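Bumping my old thread because nobody answered last time. Still need a sequence for this structure:
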C-alpha cells in the first residue's frame, strides 16, 4: 500500500496524487471519525473542506462513517473492496483508533498493506495512527475512550517510527509537539517530524 502521510491536509506534493489518479482510479473513501468527539458542526465543516480539496485534486469522493460498520466487518470489507484509495482525516488519534478497531478497518488495512495498488492518505491523526504505539501522543491528544470503556494504545503498526505532525508550525499545541520531539530524542525513539505542508510518501 502506498502511504501518503501529511502534517496538515494534503501538503505540497499533490502532483503525486494527481498522477496516482491517472495511473489507477479517482474513487476514494473519506473517513472523518477522528473528529467524532469534536461535535457535528466541526465534522460537517471539516468534511466539506477536505471533500472539496480532494475533488480539486481530481478524486471522486465518498464519505464514510466507520460507526455504521461497528461489529460488521464483512459489510465494511465488501464496501472497501470497491475502492483502492482511502483518506483518513485528522482529529483525535485515540478516537480514530477505536473507530478503526470496532469497524475492522484496521484489519482491512493490514490485509492490503503489501499491495501497492492501494493508496492511503492520512494527515495528522490519520497518519499518527499508523505508528506502532500511541502512548506518546498523550502529550498532545487527550486519550479519550469515546465509544467504549477502553483506550487503545496499540497503533496499526504500518510504519516503524513515530509520526509527528505540525512541527515548527502555526499550531495551537506547538509547544507540546516540541516536547514530543524532545522526548523521542531523549529516549532514542525513531520519529519523523513534519512541518505543515510537508509530506512523506512510502511504498511497501
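Sorry it took so long. Here it is:
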Amino acid at each position: 500500500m502506498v502511504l501518503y502521510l501529511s502534517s496538515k491536509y494534503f501538503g505540497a506534493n499533490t502532483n503525486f496524487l494527481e498522477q496516482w489518479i491517472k495511473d489507477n482510479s479517482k474513487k476514494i473513501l473519506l473517513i472523518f471519525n477522528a473528529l467524532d468527539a469534536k461535535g457535528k458542526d466541526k465534522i460537517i465543516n471539516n468534511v466539506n473542506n477536505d471533500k472539496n480539496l480532494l475533488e480539486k485534486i481530481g478524486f471522486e469522493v465518498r464519505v464514510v462513517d466507520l460507526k455504521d460498520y461497528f461489529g460488521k466487518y464483512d459489510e465494511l470489507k465488501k464496501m472497501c473492496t470497491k475502492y483502492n484509495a482511502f483518506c483518513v482525516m485528522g482529529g483525535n488519534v485515540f478516537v480514530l483508533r477505536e473507530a478503526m478497531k470496532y469497524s475492522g478497518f484496521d484489519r482491512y488495512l493490514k490485509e492490503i498493506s503489501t499491495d501497492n495498488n492501494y493508496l492511503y492518505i492520512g494527515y495528522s491523526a490519520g497518519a499518527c495512527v499508523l505508528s506502532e504505539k500511541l502512548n506518546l501522543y498523550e502529550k498532545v491528544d487527550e486519550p479519550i475512550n469515546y465509544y467504549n470503556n477502553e483506550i487503545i494504545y496499540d497503533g496499526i503498526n504500518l510504519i516503524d517510527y513515530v509520526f509527528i505532525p505540525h512541527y515548527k508550525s502555526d499550531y495551537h499545541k506547538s509547544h507540546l509537539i516540541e516536547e514530543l520531539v524532545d522526548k523521542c530524542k531523549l529516549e532514542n525513539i525513531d520519529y519523523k517530524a513534519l512541518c505543515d505542508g510537508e509530506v512523506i510518501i512510502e511504498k511497501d
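The chain has one domain: 2-202. Let me know if any region looks off to you.
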